[in-house]
Amino acid sequence: MPAAPSDTTATPRASAPLPDFCSLPTLFALLVVGTITACLMWLAPGGELRLRSLSVGVLYTAWLSVLLTVVLCKARPVMQRLPGMLPYAGIWLTLMVMVGVTSVALGWIDHNLGSNLTPVSTARFVRDTLLATGLLGAALLRYFYVVAQWQARVEAVAQAQVAALQARIRPHFLFNSMNAVAALIRVDPDAAERTVENLAELFRAALGSEGSTPGTLGEEWRLVDQYLDIESLRLGSRLRVERDIDTPEALPMPRLLLQPLVENAIRHGIQPSRQGGVLRLGGRRLDGGVLVTVDNPLSDAPPTPGTGHGLRSVRERVRLLFGEQAVVKAEANDGRFVVTLFLPEVASARPGRR
Hints:
alpha+beta; five-stranded mixed beta sheet; two-stranded antiparallel ribbon; 9 helices; 59% helix; disordered N terminus; disordered C terminus
């Protein structure tokens, strides 16, 4: 029998991510490197140590840096479509062509005007400029590549940690919710049935989307309300909820971020007390973000043993997803335990975050 043809089609290499040439940090880096290069060439042995030459060199590199930033900003989408390391090779060739053309044009204009701003030999000026650009451009692009790879690894680690925390939260949430149903079966079967129906809706909302897109703050508040409906059937009049919420519903938000805090508040603040207590949920807009509070009374009963997983997981997820600007604070004050979250609006909307 003839042998089956082998699949020799090679999978194209993924494109190496290019830096954002449209950003101010990239322009600043080019300006700094260009200025340092002009100073080193001015101080090189055999050169004329005149301030006029240094001023012209710094002015030329500054103008060239701005021009290159604009060109690379426009060329980046095209270059990024190339496979493997070709985007960086394309950027390097673009640098060389731009510097070569501008050096020839500058030398020609200077010699025709008789300004004597460039060396007498245009060929030497173009050669030296291309040599410096080739070496420094390669070094700078290597630096950008290493930084991009490091950022990609950090992002991958953060995503893996978030996924692990999410996987730990969901069984924890399911376990506690099913305990609530079990407690109602003997006492009030009809209520238990309604609770199961609420649980179905709750888990459809909480676990129905596993994509890379996050949820929203409005969805998180609705998830909390569904959970409170379940707990209110179990605790009855012992659970009283006060809401003072004025937050943007469309704000991107990781799923199941607020529910563990509400669960802890009920378990450690409301449930141990015979008379129950008031759970206060607050949210308001601040400059640059949103402030969320979960406030429960401190119980006089012996504390319910716990692992501290809920609050700890919230801290870790907030740190990974929102960065250092986010704040998670928990403190006892005037007989109540208050958890405060400040979530920066800009950080929460960053692409690639969950």
